[in-house]
Amino acid sequence: MIRFEYKNLISNPYLKSAIDPKLIQSHLPQVQAAREEIAKDRKADILGFYDLPEQDISHITDYAESLDPKFDTILVLGIGGSALGNKAVYNALKTEACLTKRVLTFDNVDPVFLHEILQDINMDTTLFNVITKSGTTAETMAGYMIITDILQKKYPKDYHKRLVITTDKEKGFLRQVVKDRGYSSFSVPDNVGGRFSVLTDVGLLSSAFAGIDIAAMLEGAGEMVKLSENEDIMQNPPLLNGLLHYLYLKEGKNISVMMPYSNSLYDFADWYRQLWAESLGKRFDKDGREVFTGQTPVKALGTTDQHSQIQLYAEGPNDKVITFLTVENFNHDYVIPNLHPEREEVSYLGGKCLSALLNAERLATEIALCKAGRPNANLVFPKLDAKNLGAAIMMYQIQTVFTGKLLGINSLDQPGVEAGKIATYALMGKKGFSQERKEIADYLQQ
After folding, report:
1. Does the annotation count 59 as an active-site position?
2. pLDDT tens across 115-156, in order?
3. In terms of domains, do 265 and 324 share one?
4. CA–CA gap between residue 87 and residue 89 (Å, rounded)
5. What are the pLDDT digits (tens) for 162-217?
6. pTM of the full predicted structure?
7. Which residue among 191, 212, 233 closes a domain?
8. pLDDT at position 32, please?
9. Domain assignment of residue 412, yes or no
10. Has 160 been annotated as catalytic?
11. Which residue of the set 286, 352, 421, 430 is catalytic?
């Protein structure tokens, strides 16, 4: 099971601004109130992601097993929560699990990006998974129409067998298209928002296609749900980490850096960025008061960003909480050959494993940041596998909702995103947005 090492957030002789354990204890009534709110939301069936570890996944595994073996690639057409989770899971496990099938994502309407993807894939052996709950997401639907047009022309008799739709289970444009054209389809649950949906059909389908053990992923997530129910907050990773980030935010640490020391987990940090930013970045609290709250998530990569960002983190503004992601045991490793034993400049590396160097550099960065008085934590993966990844996903989902309760905001909506969607509809000429088009025209004339 993953381990949350938090000592450098609450007790370190170098950290003058570390959170006093007494402060944690003084906030236990708020913690309990937040837990009670979450319990009410779960009873009202609002926080459906908590229950995903118990779901039946046979419809996913049966579909994956029924596919023609010729399909070796799945291209996910989605954006935000419909894409980031798919990328995070696949890129975390593709090498460690020795996956032979590919998961690609088209999550930006950059025409050159789409051209590069189409040049890279073999259309004959690629399955296309369109993901949008509403069926109206402009970026996803643009990709859907371009890809479907290509498929209809290239495979007029069986193009529908190359498309699979994941959308609302009952309503919406795409659900009607599924009925009309006979596409295979999967559902986005009503009670699970997009950025919390990686453990639903949204993320599990592509994972099962690639050969990832999705049952193990859900098992790990289930174990984290049980940990989150521990009454002792010091033994409760998602709630403790959420409370510590909340307390540091109140002290002016308004940036949360996630720094994996593993290329495989770099897209996990991308997934975290959406989850933390979109959930907690709010203008109003639940009582309608302006609060302008949130903690800006930033991703960095160890060791790469020791040579770029760490200078800022160590000597720039002390406004960050840094979380390392560490993998203890890699399935693939290299021993550094001692090619120059006579030269002390490099001979110290000879005979050491590359993974040992990687994790030594992480520890060195931790020590340097502590000496600079910068709070940091470490989430440790004993190994990078489906079960541990599922636990990490659930940890951050629970942590995010819990932190939202402490902040007194709605962590499930995204009004700032909706404003941009409306402006896009108006600019692209969608019916019903004439007033918005007029406002945009006035804006452009300023």
Report:
1. no
2. 999 999 999 999 999 999 988 899 999 999 999 999 999 999
3. yes
4. 6
5. 999 999 999 999 999 999 999 999 999 999 999 999 999 999 999 999 999 999 99
6. 0.97
7. 212
8. 98
9. no
10. no
11. 421
pLDDT at 12 over 90: no
From the list 133, 278, 387, 405, the catalytic residue is 278
Tell me, what CATH number does 185's domain have? 3.40.50.10490
* 150 within 8 A of 179, measured Cβ to Cβ: no
Active-site hit among 16, 43, 226, 307: 307
Using CA atoms of 34, 35, 37, 39 in order, give the dihedral in degrees to the nearest 10. Answer: 170
231 and 197 belong to one structural domain = no
Residue 303 is encoded by which pair of tokens?
């060791």
Give the domain-ending residue among 212, 235, 251: 212
What is the extent of the structural domain holding 421? 417-444
How, if at all, do strands 126-131 and 73-77 pair?
parallel
Residues 247, 153 within the same domain: no
For residues 14 and 75, state if they share a domain.
no
Distance between CA atoms of residues 125 and 74, nearest Å:
9
Catalytic, 101? Answer no
Q: Is the pLDDT of residue 11 over 90?
A: no
With beta carbons less than 8 A apart as the criterion, state whether 127 and 67 touch: yes
Digit-coded pLDDT (tens) for 26-44: 999 999 999 999 999 999 9
